[in-house]
Amino acid sequence: MLTTVDTSRPPTRRRGALKLHNTLQGWSFILPNFIGFGILTLVPVIMLFYYSLTEWNAFGKATFVGLENFSRLLGDSSFWTALYNTGYYSVFHIPLTLAAALGLALLLNTGIKGRGFFRTAAFFPYITSIVAIAVVWNQIFSPEYGPINQALRFFGIADLPGWTASAQWSMPAVIIVGVWREMGYYMLLLLAGLQTIPAQLYEAAKVDGASAWQRFRNVTIPGLRPTLFFVTVMLTIGSLKVFDLILVMTNGGPGNSTLVLSQFIYRKGFEENQFGYASSSAVVLFFICLSITLLQYFWNRRQEK
Amino acid sequence: MNRRLIAASAALASLALLVTGCGADTEAPTDTETTAGGTTAAETTPAGDTGSTEPKGELTLAGWSLNTTPEFQTLADGFNATNPEYTVTVSEYQAGNDYDTQMITDLAAGTAPDLYIMKNLVNFYTYAAGEQLVDVSDVAGTLDNESVSAYELDGATYAIPYRQDAWFLYYNIDLFEQAGVEVPDGSWTWDDYAAAATELSEKLEGDTKGAYTHSWQSVIQGFANAQSEGADVLSGEYDHLKPYYERALQMQADGAMEAYGTVTTNSLSYQSQFGTQKAAMLPMGSWYIATLVAQQASGEAEDFAWGIAPAPQFDESTAGTDNTPVTFGDPTGIGINPAIEDEKLDTAKAFLSYVASEEGAKALAGIGITPSVMSPEVTDLFFQLDGIAEDELSRWTFENRTVMPENSVSQHTAEINTLLGELHSAVLSDSEGIDAAIENAENRAKNEILNR
């Protein structure tokens, strides 16, 4: 137990020693986890920064090339396409998922019948195998035989979208699946947040004559702020490094219409064996994630004041 | 808001979620863009432990999907039967694209086997230039085997091919008869092929198509690169792709084959399209022969008469049985890990000589693998497989072909492949016109890849 302090020790012991003792004890508890994190995450991440300045094909020694990889990134149109596509995905995926998750959470926080079932149902996509999701959704999106286009055809729409089989529609298709897949997970987080808001606040607001919108605006949102902040940050990072969904749904295509940064990194590293160059694009992605998260953090702090 | 309405819409939405979300886990699709290393389902040859002298130790050979890909064990058994100093044993690696990832990791870590497979030429450069292969020019010098030259880099040979797949045209004789269309006679150009496919689609009942073009870039670019005069993907000039793509687009528009978007969104497999008679023709690599035979035997594929014809040609100059038709395919080779113990090196080289010899070729032909050495005996053995096509043209096709390597050996190969893969999906999905796509690819090749 962490807080047990041996009281039989002579009181002459200095406080500093006790503090050190407690600290070491605390560290020893997190050590098993930290060793794993250190070896499998921290060290590779630090090495990544070094490799981003080298040219390395996995064999032998990495040759130091300075900032060459970064200047090459500047002139690489695939990289810019990937960056643009990542932005495109995030700009739609983040607000849409947030809205859908919040809507679902508000709905399932009311006393509707069978809400346990619906909560589970909404969470289902998140725990379904991503490969199964890709196969099923791709069939749904199939331009000729898929149910979506058949329904649209039924309503007399002539110029049907090609979904994952056209460069123009592939990104919207992937975004739809991304939102569908992740909203259940964020709904769960938001539900937990909603339940921490005391019911008395709603009652008091009601007594004061606040409308449903006013209650949402002035009770729910402020009460949910810490959760919303957490959800937004996680969602942003998740969107910026989206990978598996795209890889199995479109593999970046058609053309490079859904090529995102993570896949660009994967391609350069594991398909083309340019680990130095792949590392440098990973570093760029890291700094994009870091700066956006910091921005959100400071914005949130200002809001809280 | 009306609570009942909310509940009802939530119920509807959740039902939809449930219906689409409950799909059973399926295996990851192995969407390999490479063409070598297909699996065969022929029976595994039993290990032949007939050694009279005790071997001194083991030589390890990498392989994948060992229970469905018996070729590695067949080679090991055939070689071990000659009582070498060291016994060759097979160790299993990941199948598909993961093979190279795992092998590169093991080589870098120093835990790779003594002998390992080059699945195709794309990664050969990485291994050879990364000094992960022993120079085996001395073995290559003793061999009479055309495919060996594919593994040359800066004048030295770094791997020895044991199999040499080639692309042919598979056709369903029953469907041709049903439609009343004449079967291929070995003299087809691509225009003949397109015309036959269109005619078949029109005359066959239901949704049956004249041809099936799989989503791989090889199916179109492989032929274009091999058959067009002076074509070289490393030159950064891609005009030669144009006629091939125009023809494919026309075939899609005419309904002569499933559209690219249908193939990708429905994850169609060429085995089921041809095997269950949804398409009458299929351009595909020779690895599919053994697969088709096995699938017809197991009932996975329907029972119908089929044959192989030479791949359609660019023009008449190479078409016909009085010529040697041009097709493509990467060899599959074996190289030696430089970390091998010195005393094992001679046995390893002897093994390489064996896999590229006629003796090794016969062992491979017996299980339906297209070996790197051809001879009438090899063809005889190959066509003894139960359920294989028996007509003269199929035999002729198997024996007579000029096989161009699908990939060239260069530091840029992998990147150019990615670039042309993007062109392929953009053009066939009708997202980009062929002229714009070629110009775009040429610019990117010159300004971002070949200039380094």
What does this structure look like?
Chain B: Belongs to the bacterial solute-binding protein 1 family. Chain B: This is Extracellular solute-binding protein. The complex is a heterodimer of chains A (305) and B (452). Chain A is mostly helical. Chain A contains 12 helices and 2 strands. Chain A has helices at 15-51, 68-74, 77-108, 115-127, 130-141, 147-154, 170-194, 199-207, 212-240, 244-249, 261-271, 275-304, and strands at residues 54-55, 63-64. The longest helix of chain A has 37 residues, at 15-51. Chain B is of the alpha/beta class and 452 residues long. Chain B has 2 domains: 57-165 and 330-373, Periplasmic binding protein-like II (D-Maltodextrin-Binding Protein, domain 2), CATH 3.40.190.10; 167-326 and 407-449, D-Maltodextrin-Binding Protein, domain 2 (3-Layer(aba) Sandwich), CATH 3.40.190.10. Chain B is built from 18 helices and 13 strands. In chain B, helix 2 (71-80) links the parallel strand 1 (57-64) and strand 2 (86-93). Chain B is globular and about 65 Å long.
Summarize the structure.
The complex is a heterodimer of chains A (305) and B (452). By secondary structure, chain A is an all-alpha fold. Chain A has 12 helices and 2 strands.
How are the elements arranged and paired?
The complex is a heterodimer of chains A (305) and B (452).
Chain A: H1 15-51, E1 54-55, E2 63-64, H2 68-74, H3 77-108, H4 115-127, H5 130-141, H6 147-154, H7 170-194, H8 199-207, H9 212-240, H10 244-249, H11 261-271, H12 275-304
Helix pairs in contact in A: 3-7, 3-9, 3-11, 4-7, 7-9, 9-12, 11-12
Chain B: H1 3-21, E1 57-64, H2 71-80, E2 86-93, H3 98-109, E3 115-118, H4 124-129, H5 137-141, E4 152-153, E5 156-157, E6 160-164, E7 167-172, H6 173-179, H7 190-203, E8 209-211, H8 218-227, H9 241-254, H10 260-265, H11 270-275, E9 279-285, H12 287-298, E10 306-310, E11 326-328, E12 331-336, H13 345-355, H14 358-366, H15 376-382, H16 392-399, E13 402-404, H17 413-428, H18 434-449
Parallel strand pairs in B: 1-2, 8-9, 11-13
Antiparallel strand pairs in B: 3-12, 4-5, 6-12, 7-9, 7-10
